[in-house]
Putative nucleotidyltransferase with HDIG domain
Amino acid sequence: MGLIYIDDLKPGMKLEHDLICPNGRFLLSSGSVLEEKHIRIARSWGITEAYVVGMDRETLNLEAQSAFSPEVVEPVDQYLSLIFKYADLSVPAMHEIHRIKRLMLCKLVEQKGVQALPKPSSVPEARLPKGFVKGAVTAESIVEKEVGLASFPDIYYKIKDVLSNPASSASHMADVVEKDTSLSAKLLKIVNSAFYSFPSRIDSIRRAITIIGTKELGTLAVGISAIEAFKGIPVELTNMKKFWRHSIACGVFARLLGTHIDEVSTERLFVSGLLHDIGRLVIFRTLPEESAYTLFLAHKLNKSLADIEYEVLGFDHSDVGALLLEKWKFPTQLVKNVKFHHGVKNVHIEASITSAADCMAVTFGSPVTSSFIAPSISKDVWDSLGISTSVIANVVTQSERQIEEIEDAFFG
């Protein structure tokens, strides 16, 4: 008897325990022999694991590993030792993420050869500017400068006014959003994507608000508007398409994880992921030479950018991002999600979700820097979510299409 993931269920397996949906609904009794339709229904009801007779996860893992030759496994394991260099694989969530990534890469190498393994891009050598003194520039001082420089879209303030006014209605929100054709187009693309998977097409902002909710759509609109404040970042410092893809991926993973947890705002989680690294753009724009050096050092030492920023600057991009969003009067919880997305301190479950999502976004194809070292999810952070590691595989499967469609909605 053992607990196995939904993806590993096969017709003919026998249930050891009753199959119960997350909402408590009874689906299938113990002793039942699974059919294809049972597995399909179980998946549609959000079931991620089941107890079956004569099988367990460890046995399945060993079977999966034995399916690949040493010529496939050895280069993959060597590659993974770099990605997970600082990860604590004793944490069940990190062990599962490592397992999924290993299986994905083994399949890739078996099909296309070792050369198919992704390679980190090079980072130009850089030095600190002459006269640099650690502590001479603070997170607060560069945020003050940024607030003065940034041209924040008027639509943001209009949306904020509607959200903060208790007398506002869905019609008021629609009137504001519809006046910005670019924002409206992006929102409708997202609403009609796999992000929501509505059965029929939503063809107007008013209809979208009716289905999603005024506050939820307003939260999405605020996050999209914030992106417009950051243009003109020097191309030698970062590939902006790559930066926003990672940010979108983090938002998607955060939202998908949030669907398994009660009483969290999945739209706010998406925006938290979307903006979690916004502080990096502020540092890029305000301290370009110092930014280039921290990127170079992180790549050279295979360390996280946040750790290098603290060593060199005395603060990191999460400090800067949180301060900026606070100055822009973003919701307090969203500010906390950005500030603690590296899991340094577990202040709220949404911050923990954002931290876990950042790790998953780096690991599964959308690294934020060229070093692509996966940040580790701490045991405290994962335990605070109160969910099984069995959801991870399902989240990864759902994420790919959503990331692609949202990236298309933002950038075409």
Q: What stands out?
A: The longest strand covers residues 2-5. The chain is about 60% helix and 5% strand.
